[in-house]
Specification:
8-stranded mixed sheet, Rossmann fold, Dna Ligase, domain 1, globular, alpha/beta, D-amino Acid Aminotransferase, Chain A, domain 1, 3 domains
Length: 394
Amino acid sequence: MLSKAVILGSNFYTGLSIIRGLGSNGIYTVAMDYSTDGTYGAKSKYLNEQIIVPHYKRQKEELLQFLIDYAKKQDAKPVLFPSVDPYVEFIDCYLDELKQHYQINMSVQGFWSGIMDKEILHTLATKHNVLVPESISPTDERFEERVTAEIGFPCIVKPTDSPTFVTIFRAKIFTCHTIDEVYAAIAKAQQANLEVIVQRIIPGADDHVYTYDAYLDQSSLVTHWMTCQKLRQFPINFGASSFTKQKYVEELHHIGAPFLEAIGYKGFGEIEFKKDALSGKYYFLEINARTTTLDPLLQKCGINFPLLAYNELTGKAIGTHVVRQNLNIAFCFLFEDLISSRNYVRTKQLTILEIVKSHFMKKAPAVWSIKDPLPALYFLALLFKKVIRKLIRR
């Protein structure tokens, strides 16, 4: 009996991409959501079943028990996939219990939470001789003096716990231009009981941000990898990808693979780097420990990372594969990219011509698929409802 694939969260296009990547290969897919609201991924023809479950944050213990009870009823251990960071944290919190009933890449409880913590990750990267942006904690001695001398302005105030920070502030960081703004940003985070660090901004436009996307088997060896270059983000400068192209950069493998293997990483991981516009060196920014926004692009370029995880965990051979050529394919989340493009032009970071030229590449859309159109139509309906609500409020 084949194992089912259980995807936690279908209300974002990463969940949709997992569903498509697995379901299109004949795997029985189950989406588990705490509500049906906004779950456009569940409209995919490749989804076999959607189940409403307890909330991952408000009802943690209930969700854990639901997952265990569900798995006990199956003929084979399901494979568990988190679609967004809060589900990664949930699985990591209960990994030892869940591993008894589900197939999961990671085997060490607390590992994912550790690498998602920016201070711990910074320490790990430094230990393994990977360049990281200079950072200072508000509790460090001579804090103000060091921020001015070593970090400079503008700088960013960055959370150690990104998912919670984003949930509260709807932003990934605070950008500060003076020491007073730094103190104000720290105070705002402290009021929310969140720890932050102050970090230097690596010089370079958004097209200096790159990703190293890799799969590491259960022996923590890289078997598949490719690299990408961001062109635009939403929000601009410090956001998630809205337009990213596949671009082969061998150097990122020589930095990323030894690091991931040395720390015992398993499964899919995406390291984000920024290339210093002055020195040309690549600086380690963060690791995404779950399927990312770029998954439609990765699949279109020939590496189906969710399928790799499923196959390995269910005992199938996965081989090796590297994308070592430029395929002229770009990920695009058109809704957010239109907003970003307007803001890049307004701030004179890009011209209209530069943006138009980028759209001549082949696309790996975030939501749209001609083979599976219903999620995109449902997504458009959700957007239309939001617009109507805003107009009514006015």
